[in-house]
Amino acid sequence: MSGCSKRCKLGFVKFAQTIFKLITGTLSKDKIEDELEMTMVCHRPEGLEQLEAQTNFTKRELQVLYRGFKNECPSGVVNEDTFKQIYAQFFPHGDASTYAHYLFNAFDTTQTGSVKFEDFVTALSILLRGTVHEKLRWTFNLYDINKDGYINKEEMMDIVKAIYDMMGKYTYPVLKEDTPRQHVDVFFQKMDKNKDGIVTLDEFLESCQEDDNIMRSLQLFQNVM
């Protein structure tokens, strides 16, 4: 592995840690300058004002994210291998590779095999600070693996199992082999309103918003983003 590749991957672990601080609210205004000094060089991102208008991040938060992104990986894009590296760091007791694959595909909306900063920060803005409707639409797209506009039971099963695999045995010490399937059966029974074997976006939105248990479960899954 070249020095550039090593620096890119190590840098994105630090980048992921910065994202984690944003998620948990520990990246306070007083700490932002420290984060910039530790992990980034002085560089003003192009199109910052446009991204600020399009997302729910402040200009300073976008600077933190962008400078880390560009400084540690000068190519300006993230590939799937780097994505998997980041998730492996955060979930060392499980296998995060499959979930990272599905998540990467959800970020890679143009299906180019790489994610630009604009793609990444737009999705991140929805997941962290979007409306309930926006978050649910994004989650639907994640579950819709083949992008045909519907979710079938196997797609939902693949995502749920990937999440359980990622969380690992230390999170679920008494997890039974059929637990993911049971979880999916409950979800699907409630969501497939007309019992045609698929869940449409409208069915997904309606089911989630009328069922507090589903909302809490989906929130748990969104938290592993």
From TrEMBL:
GO terms for cellular component: voltage-gated potassium channel complex. SMART domains: EFh. It comes from the Eukaryota. The keyword Hydrolase does not apply. Residues 95-130, 131-166, 179-214 form the EF-hand domain. Keywords: Calcium, Cell membrane, Ion channel, Ion transport, Membrane, Metal-binding, Potassium, Potassium channel, Potassium transport, Repeat, Transport, Voltage-gated channel. GO terms for molecular function: calcium ion binding; potassium channel activity; potassium channel regulator activity; transmembrane transporter binding. InterPro entries: EF-hand-dom_pair, EF_Hand_1_Ca_BS, EF_hand_dom, Recoverin. It is found in: Cell membrane. Belongs to the recoverin family. This is Potassium voltage-gated channel interacting protein 1. It comes from Nomascus leucogenys.
